[in-house]
Design a protein that fits this description.
The complex is a heterodimer of chains A (516) and B (463).
Chain A (H helix, E strand, L loop, with lengths): L8 H17 L6 H25 L11 E9 L4 E7 L1 H20 L8 H20 L3 H10 L1 H11 L4 H30 L2 E2 L2 E2 L9 H4 L6 H18 L8 H8 L2 H26 L1 H27 L4 H21 L3 H32 L10 H4 L1 H15 L5 H16 L1 H26 L16 H19 L2 H18 L2 H4 L5
Antiparallel strand pairs in A: 1-2, 3-4
Helix pairs in contact in A: 1-2, 1-4, 2-3, 2-4, 3-4, 3-11, 3-14, 3-19, 3-20, 4-5, 4-6, 4-11, 5-7, 6-7, 7-9, 7-10, 9-11, 9-12, 10-11, 10-13, 11-13, 11-14, 11-20, 12-13, 12-18, 13-14, 13-17, 13-18, 14-16, 14-17, 14-19, 14-20, 16-18, 16-19, 17-18, 17-19
Chain B lengths: L5 H15 L8 H18 L16 H28 L3 H20 L3 H19 L6 H32 L7 H5 L5 H17 L8 H8 L2 H26 L4 H24 L4 H22 L4 H26 L15 H4 L1 H15 L5 H15 L3 H26 L12 H19 L2 H4 L7
Helix pairs in contact in B: 1-2, 1-4, 2-3, 2-4, 3-4, 3-10, 3-13, 3-18, 4-5, 4-10, 5-6, 5-10, 6-8, 6-9, 9-10, 9-12, 10-12, 10-13, 11-12, 11-17, 12-13, 12-16, 12-17, 13-15, 13-16, 13-18, 15-17, 15-18, 16-17, 16-18
The chains are: A mainly alpha (516), B mainly alpha (463).
């Protein structure tokens, strides 16, 4: 695998989709076949190349060495800005999730998108480059560049190909997330000046200017500065996750977005918030994080229960799934802020799981929407007779989403609950209630859509899944069972990365000799 | 000795020559355009020769002066190219137009590089007088006349206030010098000095259109010919900011805390008011007027904080603003068939379908104004907000970034019209000159946004 370290593999993965987008630019817009082919080809290539990362990543390394496939070059020397790519075990899994889901979103759109295809696939590919860049960047400037550039294609995907209230949803999404990220920019600037000359009464460290993220890990910020910087970052990430009470953009954006947009939003964009907590908040502001844990956990638990209750009341399948995301992401943040290895690795795995399960559910809703042009639950009933295959696929993915043992959701949620229990049994109990509610709203929806008699004429002769649609779902189902039955390769890859963070944020965890 | 003034000499001689052409009955428009651009280009080429030429009694050629002189000359070049179709169509005569732009440039050149208050005032007035005429250049148009007159009355008044302030400062210190100010004025911050400072401050705040001295801006922006509006939003503003910085960082340094307080309040109001008022505008030019008021507020973050990030930020942001504004006005001119049909936000409906390149360029310029990374505007804002954080003006920085989010909201009303509406009612002009301007601006925005170290390497401004 040595050759992998010679070529800039992360850049190749990140910019392959962009290259595809540039090629699409030169294709005539009437030639939709060629456009679809190029988009699929480049998203697929990016996915194929990213598989090498899975095997090439050396998970036995510890400390800073967990960051591998490093690419470093000067970019803006006077600011200390570098072109700095590298991934640890956590980012590795997210990169793989991104390339897979982006690939699927390209070919799941073939029939769903019927106008302005050229721009659509172009934006989808640019979006993929942006998302991959976020997970690969180890420099604040570079990270921020990708973090914000990504918003533009997402805005257009919702705004042009979205549902009835697309304009409202698109601008709301853009404004909310931009609001969070500009405050984060101020946080980054504060870190920059603390590291160099100091500001506002804070004695600077006098280091040469740099925006290298790893340099700031455990840099020892003074407590009150930590608090403010934490707050600046927190708002940005909390909006992205979204944590309660910053979640109001999410149902709008998810519901109005086209299927592929929803898959990417739920599957990947939301993970950027949680990834941000893991990569920035915990290692850079450990003290402030620890201080805030009671509040953060409270918000997470509110999100778990509130999200589930709101989901239960939705008459629209897509809205239901969108609100269930709030609940599931509550689990992830709960795991992160448990600040121990089980919590963090459970949270990381659950990020992947949520991408697979919720992404899958959105794909399924998209499939039925293409046939019936409605997503209302009570427009259906008895679908298991007319579309038996569809019902089976839906069942598997729904069960994985509610955390049935032997499937991926169970492993993630269980590990998070262990982590939460480690701190307080109350947390675990309340979060456990969320799992029950999750089963309730999903099964109830399933019952109303698939069981009973077919009482509507339109539902009688719906065509079942075709090959392309099955191909969008099969990779997800393979992953569901793989993670559910044999999660060890996943945990192995993230183990040392999680350890690296826990060592910074709760250093006494390992010294007390507790079981891991 | 003479090196420092070569560019201004070239510009002045060309401007006078262009005026004289009428005597010989030469009314060729292309002469005006080519001579104007040629003189400005040679002015830029000769700029570096004057660096550190400090022997002139009235003019200083330090980094600050050179960079901003470059900026205003670049603005003038782009304005001239931009104006070609507009002025040609109206048959208003390009020769005199070109000469007026050159005179304004000479004024700005002196304003930026002045070593004492008298040169500064003369430069300012030369710039202002040319601007008044340029605003009303499309004579016969009621709106242009109104704008020109409004601008003249308020501008003359503000110049008066500035002049009175200068005389008070002179009365207090017995010296017109800007350069040697720091050494001589130590401790002499008496009441008259401070009163003079306040008046100078008001005069400058008027020139950069800060709230509450902004009332003239929307009307003038709306009424002036399109290319001249583009010119106003950058050239005179950049020059005034450079002079602003020089006078207040040098002469009024002993009273820093006093003026910083005033500027703090004004910057706060300007960012807030400019951006909030832009939300409700339906006329594109008024919207841009309020947006540019708001962006003057961002520039003041750099002005108030006085550290190594400040000047980089001011220069970089104004450069980004120049590319974005000229580019946007190029597109506005593209869209409009008739003069003085109102430029509505709705005019952009369906632009993407009709002409994707124009829509894409517009999107990039708007993103640059919002400050999305990858565009020059982001780098400028990065430095400006950075200077505010470093200077401890956290509240201003927070207001600044929040207002950037607001600006996204109103700029994206245009984007929605361009990309999401499918209507097609516009006619697009076909013009090589506009296209040239557009491409220069687009390249500038993207190159300085993605690879800023190219410029930052030379941009170690020392005062």
């Amino acid at each position: 695998m040595d050759f992998l370290f010679k070529i800039p593999i992360l850049s190749v993965i990140t910019y392959l989709p962009l290259l595809g987008a540039i090629l699409i630019l030169f294709v005539k817009k009437e030639n939709t076949k060629a456009i679809k082919f190029i988009a699929t080809l480049f998203a697929g290539l990016s996915f194929l190349v990213s598989i090498f990362l899975w095997f090439g990543y050396d998970f036995t390394k510890e400390g800073v060495e967990i960051f591998q496939f490093i690419e470093k070059a000067n970019w803006i020397p006077s600011l200390g800005v570098q072109y700095y790519f590298g991934i640890d075990g956590i980012a590795l899994l997210l990169v793989l999730l991104t390339t897979l889901l982006s690939f699927i979103s390209v070919y799941c759109s073939f029939t769903a998108i019927t106008f302005r295809e050229k721009e659509y696939y172009l934006l989808l590919l640019i979006l993929e480059t942006g998302m991959l860049g976020v997970f690969c960047s180890l420099d604040f400037f570079l990270f921020y560049l990708f973090w914000e550039i990504m918003l533009v294609p997402m805005y257009f995907l919702i705004g042009v190909w979205g549902g009835e209230r697309k304009l409202y949803a698109a601008i709301k999404f853009f404004l909310y997330t931009l609001l969070g990220s500009v405050l984060m920019l101020l946080g980054i600037l504060a870190l920059y000046f603390y590291n160099t000359t100091g500001f506002l009464g804070f004695q600077g460290l006098g280091n040469p200017p740099t925006l290298d993220i790893l340099h700031f890990h455990n840099i020892g910020l003074p407590a009150n500065l930590q608090f403010w910087v934490f707050l600046a970052f927190f708002i940005g990430f909390a909006i992205k996750v979204p944590m309660f009470p910053f979640h109001t953009w999410l149902p709008d954006a998810h519901v109005e977005a086209p299927t592929a947009g929803s898959v990417i939003l739920a599957g990947i964009l939301l993970k950027m918030g949680t990834y941000g907590f893991v990569r920035f908040s915990l290692p850079i502001m450990p003290e402030a994080t620890k201080q805030m844990v009671p509040y953060l956990v409270t918000l997470s638990i509110i999100a778990i229960i509130y999200g589930a209750l709101v989901a239960m009341a939705q008459p629209d399948m897509k809205k239901l799934i969108a609100n269930s995301s709030v609940s599931h992401l509550g689990f992830v943040t709960l795991g992160i802020f448990a600040l121990n290895p089980s919590g963090l690795s459970g949270a990381t795995l659950q990020m992947i799981n949520h991408g697979i399960s919720t992404g899958g559910l959105f794909l399924l809703v998209g499939i039925i929407y293409e046939r019936r042009h409605t997503k209302l639950i009570n427009a259906f009933g008895g679908l298991s007779y007319s579309m038996p295959n569809y019902a089976i696929y839906f069942m598997i993915i729904a069960l994985s989403s509610m955390g049935l043992p032997a499937m991926n959701g169970f492993v993630g949620e269980f590990t998070i609950l262990i982590g939460a229990f480690h701190n307080s049994w109350v947390w675990a109990l309340l979060a456990g209630a969320g799992i029950v509610l999750g089963a309730a709203y999903l099964l109830w929806m399933y019952q109303r859509v698939f069981y009973g008699k077919i009482d509507k004429e339109e539902n009688k002769n719906l065509p079942d899944l075709n090959l392309r649609e099955k191909l969008t779902l099969i990779p997800l189902i393979i992953l569901i069972f793989w993670i559910g039955l044999y999660p060890k390769p996943y945990f192995k890859r993230m183990e040392n990365s999680v350890k690296y963070i826990v060592k910074i944020v709760s250093p006494d965890y390992y010294t007390k000799g507790e079981i891991k | 000795m003479i090196k420092g003034i070569i560019p201004s000499l070239i510009l002045t001689i060309t401007a006078l020559f262009l005026l004289l052409l009428r005597l010989f009955k030469i009314k060729k428009d292309w002469v005006g355009l080519s001579l104007g651009i040629l003189s400005l280009l040679s002015g830029i080429i000769f700029l570096p020769y004057g660096i550190s030429e400090n022997s002139l009694p009235t003019l200083i050629q330090d980094d600050l002066a050179i960079y901003f002189q470059f900026l205003v000359m670049l603005a003038s070049i782009l304005t001239l190219i931009l104006s070609w179709d507009y002025i040609k169509e109206g048959k208003w005569g390009f020769v005199e137009y070109s000469s007026l732009v050159l005179f304004a440039t000479v004024g700005m050149y002196f304003l930026v590089g002045s070593k004492d208050f008298l040169t500064l005032y003369i430069g300012l007035e030369l710039m202002a007088l040319s601007s008044y005429v340029l605003t009303g250049y499309t004579r016969g148009e009621a709106k242009a006349f109104e704008a020109s007159f409004k601008y003249f009355i308020l501008g003359a008044f503000s110049s008066g206030v500035l002049l009175y302030g200068i005389s008070l400062v002179y009365g207090s210190t017995g010296n017109f010098s800007i350069e040697n100010a720091l050494g001589q004025f130590q401790g002499s911050t008496d009441f008259i000095f401070k009163a003079g400072m306040l008046m100078v401050l008001c005069g400058f705040l008027f020139k950069v259109a800060a709230i509450p001295f902004h009332i003239w801006t929307p009307d003038v922006y709306e009424g002036a010919p399109n290319p001249i509006t583009a010119f106003f939003s950058i050239g005179p503003k950049a020059a005034s900011f450079a002079a602003f910085v020089r006078v207040f960082w040098w002469v009024f340094a002993p009273a820093s805390e006093d003026w910083q307080f005033v500027v703090y309040v004004v910057a706060f109001l300007t960012m807030l008011g400019g951006n909030l008022m832009a939300i409700v505008q339906n006329n594109v030019k008024r919207l841009l007027a309020y947006a540019s008021i708001g962006s003057a507020g961002y520039v003041m973050l750099g002005f108030i904080s006085k550290n190594d990030f400040s000047l980089k930020g001011i220069f970089y942001y104004l450069l980004a603003f120049l590319f974005a504004m000229v580019g946007i006005f190029a597109i506005i001119i593209y869209l409009n068939k008739k003069e003085y049909s109102e430029e509505k936000v709705d005019d952009f409906k369906g632009l993407n379908k009709k002409h994707p390149f124009l829509a894409f360029s517009m999107l990039i310029f708007l993103l640059s104004l919002v400050g999305i990374p990858g565009t020059a505007g982001f780098v400028g804002k990065f430095f400006l907000f950075g200077s505010a954080i470093k200077g401890g003006f956290i509240l201003l920085a927070v207001v600044g970034v929040l207002m950037s989010v607001v600006s996204l909201y109103y700029f994206f009303r245009i984007v929605v019209n361009m990309y999401i509406s499918e209507e097609e009612k516009m006619e697009i002009k076909n013009s090589k000159f506009l296209l040239t301007t557009l491409i220069i601006c687009l390249l500038g925005t993207l190159i300085f946004g993605i690879y800023p170290s190219f410029l930052l390497r030379i941009l170690s401004i020392n005062l």
